[in-house]
Q: What sequence folds into this?
């Protein structure tokens, strides 16, 4: 007996059932090939069924339109339902994570992966919406936390997302949100960890892309007060928002989104003075982009319009001459024998001055974004002691463009790490556990991308990041010489079959495809150091908000090499992996059906490529051959001991055997078919989720029966008590 037969999948119990296309769980496919998976996804996409399971892994195909499947009624229908009772849905994944946290008292995480434009950010938002709706607690502080968690979406989208060629709302940073719960399943706080903001987008975008959303929201919908104080007009007035030729995006209302952003700031508790400071920094960045340079006749740069410098100085609350000096010259300090030497002001040419201007703008925005995340975390600090967390990971997707640089390398490296987690926990670890637990099993081959991760992050032999850091340590003032130095050092990576070095590019053979990276400017982007002149300018400002964005001291005599951008992303990625490994994972694998953002186009070649590199075929094979549930003997008995008269406290018999024997006794007494379970050396294994749900149903029925017996006994007691009282009254 595999347990109760699940209801036929449907969006909700109260809706008209529509005809199902393909299979809703691809472990049920009659033929397991990449082409069969692709065909099943196509049939379901054309039937507006964007969600499909592979066991407990959700495959989500971006529909590029609203399907009306996220209503409050549909959300409510998934509450307290097991995964197979209703149609596949992101709400079912959220429900499973939340109920598992409560039932098994273990922290959970939802890992959402896929390439740019596949729908990761929307999936993360739906997970958060569901958990906020079904989690307990009616107190003011708990409601406040729920509101703040939901408010982080519009706020961080405005400052961290942008329109790209592939995606109108592309995350240009990574975000891991950990919602903290008390022992009763009530949210008491939350923490956001931010990863690698693409700050280069602030100062330049490729044709038909946009800067971060907030700049268009601000320039289109700013209040008259801000327009007057900060000189704000439309986005066409600023180089940083107009140079790429895209001011508006279909289906994005910048003015309406700006109202949502301001509301989110208020919900989180960002004060009016702090909001003024945020907008002042945004205006400073916009006006910095309008500073232009010309040659002074001696090969050095000079400012074309002093009035713009004066206004930037006004926004920075600083001296105009100091602003000008920070943009057209650089302070160089010589040293002799380890001692400080002379200090020189070296004039910059036009290209160097533009780089200095852009560097200051990027530094201010990067610090502003970090300040917002810290401020949000302060507001969402746990109101009481937390016992468990549910983490939701929304991070930039894999990217392959015609021109790929340092940003794409970092993004694709993080995606390699996430793919490695998926392999470690669903493919490699599962098979290793079967061997360790002596479970009968037929091994299945798969590609382990650890070799690609090592190629990028290894210190010895030096990987790509190590070669970049070596090039930074000996970088010349001439960027071309620095790139040539990097090219020489990257030759050490040529031993790997996943790496190829050409004249001005190198290729990494990622799990998602071969990506060709340009060497030009890569060393400079990796160095990513804040110029001393810029730090002095910001710290000397009379604006307290700006000063707080740059808290580090000026005098630093440390000879230790400061961390590079690749150092920071490597550290962050490994820290993220450690966090994710400490929780029980749920997976959402997102797929992009076409490159045109079309709700009707399903590009078979494009989807088939994603099916292959996501390893869905291997995932299905392992899932079909494996076991859906495994638990230690002790925890299994602790949860299900009531289902056997031999192991429960209800009978006269007292169990004296081992936990392992108790598991066998429970499974036999509940009449679970022998082929549905195996006993390992330390754990009990159950093959299908339906069998586990049958056990859970029996457990619920037992408690219901016991509650009924207690109620019946209580009513008998109260009736007897009433009768006795009546007799006493009569005698009296």
A:
């Amino acid at each position: 007996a595999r347990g109760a037969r699940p209801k036929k999948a449907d969006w909700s119990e109260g809706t008209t059932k529509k005809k199902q296309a393909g299979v809703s769980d691809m472990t049920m496919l009659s033929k397991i090939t990449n082409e069969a998976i692709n065909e099943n996804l196509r049939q379901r996409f054309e039937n507006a069924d964007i969600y499909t399971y592979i066991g407990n892994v959700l495959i989500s195909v971006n529909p590029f339109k609203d399907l009306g499947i996220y209503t409050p009624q549909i959300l409510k229908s998934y509450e307290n339902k097991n995964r197979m009772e209703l149609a596949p849905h992101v709400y079912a994944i959220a429900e499973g994570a939340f109920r598992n946290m409560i039932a098994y008292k273990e922290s959970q995480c939802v890992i959402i992966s896929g390439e740019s434009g596949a729908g990761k950010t929307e999936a993360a938002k739906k997970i958060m919406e569901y958990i906020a709706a079904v989690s307990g607690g009616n107190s003011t502080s708990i409601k406040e936390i729920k509101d703040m968690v939901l408010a982080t979406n519009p706020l961080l989208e405005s400052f961290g997302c942008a329109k790209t060629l592939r995606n109108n709302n592309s995350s240009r940073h990574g975000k891991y949100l950990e919602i903290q719960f008390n022992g009763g399943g009530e949210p008491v706080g939350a923490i956001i960890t931010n990863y690698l903001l693409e700050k280069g987008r602030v100062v330049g975008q490729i044709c038909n892309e946009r800067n971060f959303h907030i700049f268009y929201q601000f320039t289109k919908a700013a209040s008259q007060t801000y327009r007057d104080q900060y000189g704000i007009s439309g986005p066409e007035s600023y180089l940083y928002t107009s140079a790429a030729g895209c001011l508006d995006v279909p289906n994005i209302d910048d003015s309406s989104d700006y109202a949502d952003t301001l509301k989110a700031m208020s919900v989180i508790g960002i004060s009016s003075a702090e909001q003024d400071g945020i907008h002042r920094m945004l205006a400073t960045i916009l006006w910095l982009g309008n500073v232009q340079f010309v040659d002074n006749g001696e090969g050095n740069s000079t400012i074309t319009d002093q009035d713009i410098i004066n206004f930037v100085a006004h926004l920075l609350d600083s001296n105009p001459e100091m602003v000008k000096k920070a943009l057209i010259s650089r302070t160089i300090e010589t040293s002799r024998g380890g001692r400080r030497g002379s200090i020189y002001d070296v004039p910059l040419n036009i290209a160097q001055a533009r780089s200095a201007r852009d560097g200051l703008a990027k530094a201010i925005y990067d610090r502003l974004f970090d300040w917002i995340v810290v401020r949000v975390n302060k507001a969402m600090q746990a109101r009481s002691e937390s016992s468990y967390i549910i983490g939701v990971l929304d991070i930039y997707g894999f990217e392959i463009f015609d021109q790929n640089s340092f940003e794409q390398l970092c993004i694709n490296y993080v995606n390699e790490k996430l793919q490695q987690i998926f392999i470690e926990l669903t493919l490699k670890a599962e098979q290793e556990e079967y061997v360790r637990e002596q479970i009968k099993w037929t091994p299945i081959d798969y590609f382990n991308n650890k070799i690609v991760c090592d190629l990028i992050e290894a210190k010895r032999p030096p990987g790509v990041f190590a070669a970049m850091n070596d090039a930074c340590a000996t970088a010349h003032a001439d960027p071309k010489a620095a790139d040539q130095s990097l090219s020489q050092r990257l030759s050490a990576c040529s031993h790997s079959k996943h790496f190829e070095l050409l004249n001005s590019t190198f290729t990494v053979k990622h799990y998602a495809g071969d990506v060709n990276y340009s060497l030009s400017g890569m060393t400079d982007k990796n160095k990513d150091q804040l110029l001393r002149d810029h730090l002095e300018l910001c710290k000397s400002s009379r604006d307290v908000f700006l000063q707080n964005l740059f808290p580090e001291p000026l005098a630093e005599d440390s000879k230790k090499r400061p961390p590079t951008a690749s150092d920071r992303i490597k550290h962050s990625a490994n820290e993220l992996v450690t966090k994710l490994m400490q929780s029980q994972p749920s997976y959402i694998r997102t797929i992009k059906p076409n490159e045109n953002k079309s709700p009707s186009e399903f590009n078979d070649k494009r989807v088939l490529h994603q099916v292959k590199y996501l390893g869905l075929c291997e995932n299905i094979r392992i899932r079909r051959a494996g076991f859906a549930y495994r638990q230690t003997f002790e925890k299994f008995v602790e949860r299900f001991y009531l289902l056997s008269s031999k192991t429960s406290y209800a009978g006269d018999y007292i169990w004296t055997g081992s936990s392992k024997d108790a598991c066998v006794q429970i499974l036999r007494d509940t009449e679970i078919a022998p082929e549905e379970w195996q006993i390992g050396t330390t754990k009990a294994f159950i093959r299908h989720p339906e069998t586990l749900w049958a056990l859970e149903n029996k457990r619920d029925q037992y408690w219901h029966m016991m509650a009924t017996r207690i109620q019946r006994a209580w009513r008998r007691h109260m009736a007897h008590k009433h009768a006795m009282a009546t007799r006493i009254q009569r005698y009296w």
